[in-house]
């Protein structure tokens, strides 16, 4: 049997499959299908072999997912047990359409009042639809069918349309909505009142009038409407309202308002109309539109505006009274200081003109230049001065100066003192910014001497290369000159050290003269004089003239030390030592005192040393006078006399021989006397004498020449005797000294 056109969701429907004439029935199987899925399957086995045809029926519950599903029937005849095959046949598919419709009526959204000729949106909504896309909507205003736009959101439907009422529909009518799905419909309706309410009519006797003329304003509306003109109501509905006025400049562009009200179905409706009056009048330059004073910051671009009231619109021209610069009104441009000044603005139209003087002030941040606020300022000690820095800027800046490292602002007149010198920071401030500058204050003053920097007594040490330092306090730096007066050569200048000594500072050219010098310090603010006493001293100095390097002493004399003195001021103390030992106050000179000595000279300015060599001289002494051979001499024999003397400086040796003794030989230094072939005349007394600068010393010896058996007889002398030995010729010697 065929499927229903629409089947409600949740209700059963019957599926029936007929297989007529198929047999034997016992070999037949029938299956009901949803798409490819089996719903019911039945085999007819056990039926009579002669039975033919079959019917399969089933009740199925309709579901949402069955919407659009295909249902079919399949028949299978299995004759394979009879030696034949399996035969199969399938019915044409049938599509099922299911639906669900909410029992609630649709919801209408529409105005309660609808004006003739006006458009108003209306809508009809219903939830719980399936399938919502298959639903049909009917929406009508009275007999006028509307054509809505359908909006689907899941199982919800919304039909929206625009309703326009006509004059024929004026009065009470209905807005109806019907939604149909499957075999069912849902309906609803709303009452709507259609009304007619034309806009009020607002008229002027003339839209544009010259100043001073009379104008009539009229406000009117429909027969049932009550009008109000600028708050003044009509006497009764349907009557107009009028207003008369003498037009002034203040009425130009004045708006008039006409209000109309109408009561419809218990609701009061209103409509408004407005119009504008134009009044022709001469220009006016009001302060609100063209201020007398303009103030602009320098730099940013601005639009200068000077607007005049007037009808027709006036043209405005602003220029300097002297015919100079013209302001570019209404144009964007940079603001510069050159624009500042007074301008005459003229506004003109066909009704007349107006004139006004305006002042343009250009404000800018402070600036401190070298003219109004110099970087360096010089004050004179003892005068009165003020630290005044003038800054350029608009509005006029305030300037304050503070000393570096201090917090107190310097203000007012100052009695200038040296402590006011220093560095100050001056800052200028106005509403546009600030500027700062460093100012150096120099306080100048006349010269003055201080004992520490220019002493009254100065000692110059020879060889030091120092210059006299006479530093004078004063600004600018005073020039100082010291000139000799008493005790020195007149007008001799004392060389002075420069104020700022350096490694290249000049050294003193010559020894300054001792005495009194007059020092004069001068600068542009005055001069001062001071007397300086100069004394010249020197460190110790020993040379050959004051401390000979070689000195001689005499043995036996009394000595207080080497003869050494030193030059120097003050007079140096000189002391000498030998091998580190101190020198005794007085010595009796002996030969052991000879040697090397170190002499040291000392005073307040240093020391000097000198090494000297001391030699000790002494008188001669004949230390030895001897004969050789020592035993004596025979005639014809040889003998030698040797004389050795001790002396310093070395002694000169001289001999005195007996008279008549000839052929006597002497050595080169006379220390040896020799005789070859002694004769009797060689016998006698011989004297050896040693002589130097300090004296003479001698000794004598007696020589006797004897032969045979003569016995030798020795003469007797104060020094001693010599005896002649027994046997042969002998000589005896007797020594004496003198």
Outline the structure in words.
The chain is mainly β. The protein folds into eight domains: 7-99, Immunoglobulin-like (Sandwich); 102-195, Immunoglobulin-like; 201-281, Immunoglobulin-like (Sandwich); 285-364, Immunoglobulin-like (Sandwich); 369-445, Immunoglobulin-like; 450-497 and 513-538, Immunoglobulin-like, CATH 2.60.40.10; 543-617, Immunoglobulin-like (Sandwich); 624-703, Immunoglobulin-like (Sandwich), CATH 2.60.40.10. It is 0% helix and 53% strand. It is built from no helices and 60 strands. Strands 46, 49, 50, 52, 53, 54, 56 and 57 form an eight-stranded mixed beta sheet that branches. Strands 20, 22, 23, 25, 26 and 29 form a six-stranded mixed beta sheet that branches. A hairpin with a 2-residue loop joins strand 49 and strand 50. Residues 708-738 have low confidence and may be disordered.
Question: What labels would you give this structure?
Answer:
elongated; mainly beta; Immunoglobulin-like; 6-stranded mixed sheet; 60 strands
Chain oligomer state: single chain
Number of helical segments with 4 or more residues: 0
Low-confidence stretches: 708-738
Main sheet summary:
8 strands, mixed
Rg over CA atoms:
79 Å
Named at the architecture level, the CATH assignment of the largest domain is Sandwich
Task: Briefly note the structural class of the backbone.
Answer: mainly beta
Query: Could you give me the name of the CATH homologous superfamily of the largest domain?
Result: Immunoglobulins
How many domains comprise the coordinates?
A: 8
Name the shape in a single word. elongated
Helix fraction?
Answer: under 10%
GO cellular component, one term: plasma membrane
Keywords: Cell adhesion, Disulfide bond, Glycoprotein, Immunoglobulin domain, Membrane, Repeat, Signal, Transmembrane, Transmembrane helix
Pfam family, one: ICAM1_3_5_D2
GO biological process, one term: cell-cell adhesion
């Amino acid at each position: 049997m065929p499927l229903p056109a629409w089947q409600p969701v949740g209700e059963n429907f019957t599926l029936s499959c007929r297989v007529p004439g198929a047999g034997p029935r016992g070999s037949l199987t029938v299956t009901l299908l949803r798409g490819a899925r089996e719903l019911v399957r039945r085999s007819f086995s056990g039926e009579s072999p002669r039975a033919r045809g079959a019917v399969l029926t089933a009740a199925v519950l309709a579901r949402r997912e069955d919407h659009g599903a295909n249902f079919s029937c399949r028949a299978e005849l299995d004759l394979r047990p009879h030696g034949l095959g399996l035969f199969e046949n399938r019915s044409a598919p049938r599509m099922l359409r299911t639906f669900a419709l909410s029992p609630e009526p649709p919801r209408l959204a529409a105005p309660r009042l609808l004006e003739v000729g006006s458009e108003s949106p209306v809508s009809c909504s219903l939830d719980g639809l399936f399938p919502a896309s298959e639903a049909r909507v009917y929406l009508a205003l009275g007999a006028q069918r509307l054509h809505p736009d359908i909006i689907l959101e899941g199982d919800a439907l919304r039909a929206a349309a625009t309703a326009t009422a006509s004059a024929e529909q004026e009065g009470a009518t209905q807005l109806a909505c019907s939604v149909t799905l499957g075999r069912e419909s849902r309906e609803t309706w709303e009452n709507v009142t259609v009304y007619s309410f034309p806009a009020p009519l607002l008229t002027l006797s003339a839209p544009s009038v010259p100043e001073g003329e009379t104008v009539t304003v009229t406000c009117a509306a429909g027969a049932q409407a009550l009008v109000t003109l600028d708050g003044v109501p009509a006497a009764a509905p349907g009557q107009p309202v009028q207003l008369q006025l003498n037009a002034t400049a203040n009425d130009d562009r004045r708006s008039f308002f006409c209000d109309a009200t109408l009561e419809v179905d218990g609701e009061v409706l209103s409509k408004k109309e407005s119009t504008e009056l134009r009044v022709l009048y001469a220009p006016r330059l009001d302060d609100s539109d063209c201020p007398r004073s303009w103030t602009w910051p320098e730099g940013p671009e601005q639009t200068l505006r000077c607007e005049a009231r007037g009808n027709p619109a006036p043209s405005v021209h602003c220029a300097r009274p002297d015919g100079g610069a013209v302001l570019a009104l209404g144009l964007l441009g940079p603001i510069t200081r050159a624009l500042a000044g007074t301008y005459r603005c003229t506004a003109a139209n066909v009704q007349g003109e107006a004139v006004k003087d305006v002042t343009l002030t250009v404000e800018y941040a402070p600036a401190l230049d070298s003219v109004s606020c110099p970087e360096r300022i010089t004050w004179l000690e003892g005068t009165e001065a003020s630290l005044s820095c003038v800054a350029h800027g608009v509005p006029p800046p305030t300037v304050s100066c503070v000393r570096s490292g201090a917090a107190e602002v310097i203000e007012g007149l100052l009695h200038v003192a040296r402590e006011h010198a220093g560095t100050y920071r001056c800052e200028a401030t106005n509403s546009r910014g600030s500027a700062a500058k460093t100012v150096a204050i120099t306080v100048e003053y006349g010269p003055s001497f201080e004992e520490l920097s220019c002493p009254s007594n100065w000692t110059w040490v020879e060889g030091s290369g120092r210059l006299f330092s006479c530093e004078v306090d004063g600004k600018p730096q005073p020039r100082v000159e010291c000139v000799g007066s008493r005790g020195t050569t007149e007008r001799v200048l004392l060389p002075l050290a420069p104020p700022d000594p350096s490694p290249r500072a000049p050294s003193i050219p010559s020894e300054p003269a001792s005495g009194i010098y007059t020092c004069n310090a001068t600068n542009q603010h005055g001069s001062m004089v001071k007397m300086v006493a100069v004394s010249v001293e020197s460190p110790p100095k020993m040379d050959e003239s004051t401390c000979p390097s070689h000195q001689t002493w005499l043995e036996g004399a009394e000595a207080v030390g080497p003869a050494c003195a030193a030059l120097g001021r003050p007079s140096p103390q000189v002391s000498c030592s030998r091998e580190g030992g101190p020198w005794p106050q007085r010595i009796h000179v002996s030969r052991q005192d000879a040697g090397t000595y170190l002499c040291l000279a000392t005073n307040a300015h240093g020391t000097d040393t000198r090494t000297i060599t001391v030699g000790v001289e002494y008188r001669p002494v004949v230390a030895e006078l001897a004969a050789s051979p020592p035993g004596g001499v025979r005639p014809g024999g040889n003998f030698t006399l040797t004389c050795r003397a001790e002396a310093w400086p070395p002694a000169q040796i001289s001999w005195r021989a007996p008279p008549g003794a000839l052929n006597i030989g002497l050595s080169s230094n006379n220390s040896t006397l020799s005789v070859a072939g002694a004769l009797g005349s060689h016998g006698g007394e011989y004297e050896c004498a040693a002589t130097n600068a300090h004296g003479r010393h001698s000794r004598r010896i007696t020589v006797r020449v004897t032969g045979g058996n003569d016995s030798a007889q020795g003469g007797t002398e104060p020094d001693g005797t010599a005896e002649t030995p027994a046997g042969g010729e002998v000589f005896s010697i007797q020594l004496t000294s003198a």
